[in-house]
Amino acid sequence: MSTRAMRVVFGVLGPLQARAAVGDFAVADGEAAAVAELARRHERPLAVVFVAWYEALRAAELEGRAAGTVAYARAVGLLEGCGMPGLAAGLPALTRLSWPVREGRLPRPGDFAGLDWGPYAPWVRPLLLAGAGRAEEARDALDVAPRPPRDLLAEAMWCVLGRAALAVGDRRVMERAEAELSPARGELVGAGSGLISFGPVSGHLDALAAGLGRG
Questions:
Q1: What is d(CA 108, CA 116) in angstroms, rounded to the nearest whole number?
Q2: How far apart are the first and last CA of the chain?
Q3: pLDDT in tens, 44-54
Q4: Are 188 and 22 in contact, with CB atoms under 8 Å apart?
Q5: Considering only CA atoms, which of 185, 119, 108, 182 is closest in space to residue 153?
């Protein structure tokens, strides 16, 4: 896809992502339809990929785990050869991690063995270690985890770090995660990407507040 075409696609995606972030799916559906029409009229295959990922996010939020899992399987299948290797690296694994994170439970080690976490590995690793019962290693991983970059999945990574910190009692990281997530209390974690959601920010903030003794 040409640079100009990419700009067109991302220009249309902006309103969709903004409405998805706050769970306004009635409006976001209309934006997704506009992106799909762009794909049809101008042969923009990348737009088809983004619409499929939005539809999976929507299914996960409105229809639950079973429907979301099916929709994400379809969306993941469109990543191969889409021309955006940065999108494909790690994102399929995050769709699987989103379920235990949004449900407030630790990931079971056997469910995540061998997955490619791509650029998200430093922030996911503490939670995986906590889920494996390796609390001390999880604390060490939290100590060295870099600050998530301020991109569309920054809140998702702070949510993952916060859940790991809750599991091992790392008050410092809990407080940092709470501070980073607080401005987005009325939103869905990660949904501003238009790709994935870890559930309402408010639920994760409430869990952090309880872990810090304020709940």
A1: 16
A2: 49
A3: 667 788 889 99
A4: yes
A5: 119
Gap between the Cα atoms of 172 and 68, Å rounded: 33
Q: 130, 48, 124: which is closest to 92 by C-alpha?
A: 124
What is the distance between the alpha carbons of residues 138 and 147, in angstroms, rounded to a whole number?
16
Residue 169 CB: number of other CB atoms within 10 A?
Answer: 11
Q: pTM of this prediction?
A: 0.87
pLDDT digits (tens, 9 = 90+) for 168-189: 999 999 999 999 999 999 999 9
With CA atoms as reference, report the closest residue to 9 among 73, 83, 74, 119: 83
Mutual angle of helices 45-62 and 3-21, in 10-degree steps: 10
Q: CA dist 2 to 27, 53, 83, 111, Å?
A: 29, 21, 11, 38
Residue 39 has pLDDT above 90, yes or no: no
CA distance 102 to 199: 5
Residues 6+ apart with CB under 8 A from 124: 93, 94, 97, 117, 160
The single-letter code of the amino acid at 182 is S
pLDDT, residue 14, reads 81
**What confidence tens digit (pLDDT) does each residue in 94-108 have?**
999 999 999 999 999
| CB distance 199 to 188 below 8 Å | yes
Look-up of token digits 């955006």: 84
- The larger pLDDT score, comparing residue 200 to residue 7, is at 200
